[in-house]
Each structure stands twice: as structure tokens, then as C-alpha cells.
């Protein structure tokens, strides 16, 4: 099952991509004991009547799939670690998912391999722009695929050297934002 | 992070592209829905990207897609060639590497873990 936060994040990003998003913003911020995960997109959005059911494990809009466990599991993880969660429509269209977890709570799942999870997803989604923001109480680190594409032109993000660059950049960002596993 | 490094990468990559020429030969698609991710699709995708990079396969495109209703057989990997699409199921890291080496590089599709093979007519290009 979903064992670490990187997997949760990959699941949220997949939801956004499936909703036809052209821009996905991923934000991770740690402030003291509070760890906030936020993914917002400009996809099709979730109609109001369905919003209430997003954490119902037996509810899914995916055909051929019997259960949609991603969001219910994240909601559960947030609540178990003394945090909270919200799934909201964005006024400008699309959806925003937020989950706040207790960083020091013993039930918080490990971060997992964030760079190794996000970079392959980002690189293999042509036509979708990603913004990744990592922050702590000292500052914010940001990566925009738009800025990267500007510099590499027609070279795809899946080019081996670009992949290496992205992973390295993200790892540097995690260090800069104090997102280190200390257990 | 030094964004300027990207310019050098671009120059090198464009020079390679001019030498090689031609469009991509094969497209590899990895299913990355919730059940795929839970079944290890991240490792599968990484293994494929890594194998493609290590072998310097510049005519292979790797992309991912959401769920396909084949949850029981995740992770799913599709190999799109001009004349056919081969769909493999339960692709772990080791099998993913074999798909790249045997099927994509040597042109010998594997007989195990095949979910479906779709023939593609000439007027319906695979990509």
C-alpha cells in the first residue's frame, strides 16, 4: 500500500494529471512540528456534490477501478498525526488538496524518496508545467519546469542529463528547506 | 542549483540530435495510477529511465499514464512500436530492465507477463 509521503504525493499529482491539469503546483513546507503538503492544479475540478465524497474509500470516478484509496488514506494519515486536511475547488478552476501532518508524530510516515518519485513523474508528463516549492521557517526554494524548458528548448525533460540535473536540484532544495529525515 | 548548467546540457544534446537525426523509434508508457504506484510503478519507471539512459537509447521516448483498469496486473508497461503495442503486466524493476534490453534493444519481445499485443495498422501510427 501507500507507505511513504512521496507515494502520497505521487498519487495526488496523478489525480491532477488525470483531471487534465496543464499546471500542477506542489508545495511542501515544514514549520516547527507542522508539515504541510499541498497540491493544486488547473484541471477539471471536482463538482460540489462530489467533494463531500472524496474521502469515501468506496467512491471513485475512475472506470474499471473499484476503489479510490489515495485521498482517504492521506486524510487518515493527516488525522492520525494530529493534523488536518482539505480538498477545495480553486476559484480560478481546478482543485487544491492540503494535508497538514504532525512532523514529530510517531505515526507520520517517512518522507520516502521525494526526488526519485517526483522527477520521473514530472519528466514524463509532456505539456504539463510543474512548480515545486519547498520551504521551512527560514526560506523557500522553488523549481519551475517552465524555466527549465526555456533553457533546454526542444530537449525533453527525460534526457538523461536533464533527469540527473532535476534530481540533484530537488535534493539540494530538500536540504535547503530542512526536509531531511532525522530518524 | 545552477540553471546555466542546462545551457551546456542543451548544447550537447542538440549536437547529438543532429548526429543521430530521425524521430523516436519506440515509446515506453508506464501506468502510474494509485494502484500502479502502490504496486511499485515508481521503481519500474525509474528502472526504465535508468536503463534507457545507461544504454544511451536516444530514439526511445518514456512517458507515463494514469490507471487503465488493469489494477490486478499493475505495474503495467506498454511498448509502442510502429506496427504493434505490447502490454506487459506485473512489471517489477528487474523485468522492466529486461523489457528495455530484450524487447527494445534486441527487438525480441518477451513472452512472459504479456497482457495483450495490439497490431497497429500503417494508417494508425503508434505515436
What distinguishing features does this structure have?
heterodimer; A: 183 residues; alpha+beta; Heat Shock Protein 90; six-stranded mixed beta sheet; 35% helix; globular; B: 127 residues; Glutaredoxin; 4 helices
Give an account of the 3D structure.
The complex is a heterodimer of chains A (183) and B (127). By secondary structure, chain A is of the alpha+beta class. Chain A has a single domain (5-176), classed as 2-Layer Sandwich (Heat Shock Protein 90). Chain A has helices at residues 5-18, 48-51, 70-80, 114-123, 145-152, 160-176, and strands spanning 23-31, 34-41, 84-89, 95-102, 129-136, 139-144. Chain A is globular. Chain A starts with a helix and ends in a 7-residue tail after the last helix. The model of chain A has no long low-confidence stretch (mean pLDDT 87). With 127 residues, chain B is of the alpha+beta class. In chain B, 38% of the residues lie in helices and 21% in strands. Chain B is built from four helices and five strands, in the order αβααβββαβ. Chain B has helices at residues 5-20, 34-38, 41-54, 93-105, and strands at 26-31, 60-65, 77-80, 84-88, 114-119. Chain B has a five-stranded mixed sheet, with helices on one face. In chain B, strand 3 and strand 4 (84-88) form a beta hairpin. The longest helix of chain B has 16 residues, at 5-20. The mean pLDDT of chain B is 85. The chains are: A alpha+beta (183), B alpha+beta (127). The A-B interface holds A 1-2, 6-7, 10-11, 14, 17-18, 62-66, 68-70, 113, 116-117, 120-121, 123-126, 143, 147-148, 151-156, 158-163, 165, 168-169, 172-173 and B 1, 3, 5-7, 9-10, 12-14, 17, 30, 32-35, 37-38, 42, 45-46, 49, 52-53, 56, 61-64, 66-71.
What's the gist of this structure?
The complex is a heterodimer of chains A (183) and B (127). With 183 residues, chain A is α+β, with helices and mostly antiparallel strands.
In quaternary terms, these chains amount to heterodimer
Integer average pLDDT of chain A:
87
Please, what is the CATH homologous superfamily of chain B?
Answer: Glutaredoxin
| Principal-axis shape of chain B | globular
* Shape descriptor of chain A: globular
Largest interface: chains, residues each: A-B, 46 and 35 residues
Note the main sheet of chain B: 5 strands, mixed
Pattern of helices and strands of chain B: HEHHEEEHE
Count all strands of chain B and give the number.
5
Amino acid at each position: 500500500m501507500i507507505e511513504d509521503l512521496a507515494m502520497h504525493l505521487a498519487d495526488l499529482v496523478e489525480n491532477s494529471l488525470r483531471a487534465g491539469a496543464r499546471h500542477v503546483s506542489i508545495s511542501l513546507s515544514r514549520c516547527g512540528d507542522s508539515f504541510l503538503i499541498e497540491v493544486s492544479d488547473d484541471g477539471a475540478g471536482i463538482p460540489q456534490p462530489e467533494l463531500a465524497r472524496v474521502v469515501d474509500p468506496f467512491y471513485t470516478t475512475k472506470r474499471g477501478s473499484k476503489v479510490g484509496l489515495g485521498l482517504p488514506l492521506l486524510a487518515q494519515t493527516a488525522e492520525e498525526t494530529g493534523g488536518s486536511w482539505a480538498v477545495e475547488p480553486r476559484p480560478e478552476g481546478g482543485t487544491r488538496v492540503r494535508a497538514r501532518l504532525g512532523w514529530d508524530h510517531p505515526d507520520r510516515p517517512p518522507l520516502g524518496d521525494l526526488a526519485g518519485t517526483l522527477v520521473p513523474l514530472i519528466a514524463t508528463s509532456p505539456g504539463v508545467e510543474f512548480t515545486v516549492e519547498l520551504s521551512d521557517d527560514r526560506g523557500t526554494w522553488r523549481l519551475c519546469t517552465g524555466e527549465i524548458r526555456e533553457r533546454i528548448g526542444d530537449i525533453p525533460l527525460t534526457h538523461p542529463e536533464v533527469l540527473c540535473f532535476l534530481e540533484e536540484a530537488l535534493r539540494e532544495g530538500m536540504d535547503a528547506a530542512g526536509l531531511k529525515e532525522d530518524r | 542549483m545552477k540553471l546555466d548548467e542546462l545551457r551546456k546540457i542543451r548544447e550537447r544534446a542538440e549536437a547529438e540530435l543532429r548526429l543521430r537525426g530521425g524521430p523516436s523509434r519506440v515509446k515506453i508508457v508506464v501506468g502510474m495510477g494509485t494502484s500502479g504506484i502502490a504496486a511499485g510503478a515508481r521503481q519500474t519507471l525509474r528502472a526504465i529511465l535508468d536503463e534507457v539512459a545507461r544504454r544511451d537509447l536516444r530514439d526511445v521516448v518514456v512517458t507515463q499514464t494514469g490507471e487503465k483498469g488493469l489494477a490486478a496486473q499493475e505495474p503495467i508497461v506498454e511498448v509502442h512500436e510502429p506496427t504493434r503495442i505490447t502490454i506487459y503486466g506485473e512489471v517489477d524493476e528487474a523485468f522492466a530492465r529486461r523489457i528495455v534490453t530484450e524487447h527494445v534493444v534486441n527487438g525480441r519481445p518477451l513472452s512472459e507477463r504479456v497482457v495483450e499485443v495490439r497490431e497497429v495498422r500503417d494508417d494508425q501510427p503508434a505515436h
